[in-house]
Amino acid sequence: MNIDLHCHSNVSDGALAPREVALRAARRGVDVWALTDHDQVAGLPEARTAALEAGMRFVAGVEISVTWRGSTLHIVGLRIDPGNPTLAAGLAKVRGGRRERAKRMAEELKASGIDGAYEGALRHADNPDMVGRTHFARFLAEIGVVADTKGAFRRFLVPGKPGYVPHEWADLADAVAWICAAGGQAVLAHPGRYHLSAGAMDSLLQEFREAGGEAIEVVTGSHSPDQYAHFAALARHHGYAASRGSDFHGPDEGAEFGTLPPLDPDLHPVWRDWAL
Ligand code: AMP
Ligand code: MN
Ligand code: MN
Ligand code: MN
Description:
Layout: E1 3-4, H1 18-27, E2 32-35, H2 44-53, E3 57-68, E4 71-78, H3 85-95, H4 98-111, H5 117-124, H6 133-142, H7 149-157, H8 172-181, E5 185-188, H9 198-211, E6 215-220, H10 225-238, E7 241-245
Parallel strand pairs: 1-2, 2-3, 5-6, 6-7
Antiparallel strand pairs: 3-4, 4-5
Helix pairs in contact: 1-2, 3-8, 5-6, 6-7, 8-9
The protein binds adenosine monophosphate and manganese (II) ion (3 copies).
Residues 63, 74, 189-190 line the site of one manganese (II) ion.
């Protein structure tokens, strides 16, 4: 069974509408599918309908932005109740401030000689409340200052580069608590992306568990095969369940449905107790 528990629609920074994402996942062989937009659950009703029509099992998800010891982390919530008021209030708080941040990013880019970045990014953001770095990356690629969105991140949009503006997201413990309040399971997204020392990763995995975290992503579009093995070993060592998801954002934007290997059979999958 192909289980893919991480991807995005244009409700956050994906390129396709929830229905289109569902149809693409189904066409590429996904059987059990979660939509996990950043800090937003508004795409879930459309996604659920399309997923069931296409013959997939649907998992309601979200990916919450967190600031931990000065680093940005992402926590995926799976099997959440999207209507839970604690979760809804938490997500609304995390979303607030994105427009102000985007204006500051545009000012930074202007100082680097790039005009009109705020308006340009907004044109790529189907949901203006969720304007973020991916929309700036699409704008920068569109005007040709970089060859593609990857190049836009490398040159402008990551810490230390001229268009990067630090931002304070949710607390780790709060994000996990909102997911648990909504009846969901909290999963540490793409741990290989955080550039943490072994000691810091250890602390994170301990803190995440104390907060109520259950699983870490092992097989994700953000990891290399070496990282699949590394995070499988960490999951075993720390007694975490393992998750798997493409982190699809759009055609030709990196990860794609149906291309990732399965989890190692000795890992405990996050879906172990689901009636599938
Ligand atoms: P934001 O929440 O606005 O800070 O944007 C974060 C999003 O940017 C992530 O969810 C990814 O979709 C994308 N992203 C972050 N870093 C990179 C990178 N190095 N290359 C490509 N996309 C990235
Ligand atoms: Mn994203
Ligand atoms: Mn992420
Ligand atoms: Mn993601």
